[in-house]
């Protein structure tokens, strides 16, 4: 059942997959854990009143998992396009200018993909918030695990935005990407940490 192929590729000296792909993979695991919580809870008579809402959360989490797995490849493709610009010839001034222009264009895609990863991870955390308040206490630890994994994935993806904005000539464009990144970090990270803290307290702090 273990997908060792991706993990082995991540550990290798290959440029891809890298941090963005790792973030997407962690986010997919978070979504899967959340879906498990919903699937276990929805069939229990005790939760009949919220079963439809829980099933709706599972649908959303399944979609998030699928999208995050797709984003692993999208991140690799975006980085590969960027890396390809660094191999272009710099023999003449014209070639240097063309290489630099190609790099600057590729940096946009290299920022867009981790931002997509962040948006999906934020949605996972939103589903976790509902499950934390409505799911079976028997899987409470899994809700906390899902939330903190999603938070880590969100933060890891943010680093991949910042490393690329640092290379941008266009300061306004870089600032716009950074602002989008910070907006996606704020509330979701706080919500995920709250879920984790409350679960941890419920399990061993009482």
What does this structure look like?
The chain is mostly helical. It has six helices and no strands. It has helices at 4-11, 19-42, 51-85, 93-134, 140-165, 171-205. Helix 2 (19-42) packs parallel to helix 4 (93-134), helix 4 (93-134) runs antiparallel to helix 5 (140-165) and helix 4 packs parallel to helix 6 (171-205). The relative contact order is 0.15. The model has no long low-confidence stretch (mean pLDDT 95).
Low-confidence spans: none
State the order of secondary-structure elements, H for helix, E for strand: HHHHHH
Biggest β-sheet strands, sense, barrel = none
Helical residue percent band: over 70%
Termini separation: 36 Å
Kindly estimate the percentage of residues that lie in beta strands according to DSSP.
under 5%
Number of helices: 6
Summarize model confidence as the mean pLDDT.
Answer: 95
Shape: elongated
Rg on CA atoms, Å: 20 Å
Total beta strand runs: 0
């Amino acid at each position: 059942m273990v997908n060792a192929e991706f993990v082995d590729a991540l550990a290798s000296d290959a440029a891809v997959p890298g941090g963005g792909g790792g973030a997407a993979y962690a986010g997919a695991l978070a979504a899967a854990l959340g879906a498990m919580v919903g699937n276990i809870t929805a069939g229990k008579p005790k939760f009949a009143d919220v079963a439809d809402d829980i099933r709706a959360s599972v649908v959303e989490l399944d979609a998030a998992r699928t999208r995050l797995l797709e984003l692993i490849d999208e991140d690799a493709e975006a980085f590969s396009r960027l890396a390809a610009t660094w191999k272009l010839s710099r023999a003449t001034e014209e070639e240097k200018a063309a290489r630099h222009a190609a790099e600057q264009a590729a940096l946009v895609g290299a920022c867009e993909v981790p931002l997509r990863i962040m948006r999906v991870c934020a949605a996972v955390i939103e589903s976790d918030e509902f499950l934390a308040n409505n799911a079976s206490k028997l899987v409470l630890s899994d809700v906390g695990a899902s939330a903190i994994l999603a938070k880590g994935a969100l933060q890891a993806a943010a680093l991949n935005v910042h490393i690329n904005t640092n290379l941008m000539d266009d300061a306004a464009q870089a600032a716009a990407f950074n602002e989008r990144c910070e907006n996606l970090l704020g509330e979701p990270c706080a919500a995920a940490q709250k879920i984790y803290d409350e679960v941890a307290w419920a399990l061993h702090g009482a």
